[in-house]
Amino acid sequence: MVLTKVFCSKCGATRENFELVCTTCGSPFIIKVSGPYEKNTVSNYDYFETPIIPINLKTPIIETNQFMAKFEFYNPTLSYKDRGMNTLFSFLKYKKFLQEGDEVSEDSSGNAGASFAMFSKILGLKATVFTSVSANPNKMKQIEGYGSRTERINGSRKDVENSAKNSGLKYLGHQYWPEFYDGFRVIAYEIYEQMEHMPDNILIPFSTGTLYLGIFEGFSHLLQNGLIESIPTLWAIQPEKASGMYNRLNNIDREPEPSIADALTGVLPLRYSLLSSIIKTYGRCEVISENEIIDAKQYLLNLGIDCEYSSAITYAALKKFNLGKSSLLILTGHGIKNL
Ligand SMILES: [Zn+2]
To answer: Where is the Tryptophan synthase beta chain-like PALP domain (predicted)?
Structure first.
């Protein structure tokens, strides 16, 4: 059986109840896993009994003559966010933090909001999703379709977050809960289970780094167990216009702007120091122009792969950096979200 531990990313203090950040120093929490890897994915999580939706449903990995791609848009709400929401909501339900009829809030640029809305519906919660006025209208429709209210805020990403936090509802901001990003460990496990050989490169769309961090933790766990020899190079890919991580790593002073890759917000990640040390050791962080993203989406569509701009950015990076066939793209959201 695995053992997970939640503690402060800065001072190491343990989380006592359900506080969002460390009560000693105000830093975000992180989660670490240890112990034997289990082939049955649910057994790699010790903080809930039964997941709300089964997490042994693997998303496909396809192979072309140029690259491989994992179709994370095969999740119920058509984006990888369901992986994280599934573990987070399973945890909160198991710990009785959520009860039917609770009024909850979240802030999101769209895909997380859609997933949050679906899980809220399943648990009978009354949900409100706060988004920016520039949010993708298709994603808003999807959120409302699952029965959640939406509130559009005219302001920065931080203003949207503060509106959700100060709404008087139970705030479930997915960025803060380590159980959210811990759901992405499964992606690394599936890559290990599904592929005959590990890829050399994994290209990951990067917004606030939760996907990147979760995949890294999954590979670290496999490495601890001696099941893989090394961690593939993990590429963190951002739009030039929304590249908070890249800019800080390279001492560039530039405010994020909305990109056509609307799921990638480009704010500075909450767990910046941890992410920067992982990127420096195991990966690279690179940026892609709007035109390169647009071309990449069309190219993938011509192959019959319909993903959103925020996912096509990985193919643009493969091309830009001339990466070989042993590269795996993580295609995070479906193209229908950009219609
Ligand atoms: Zn602390």
So the answer is: 47-333
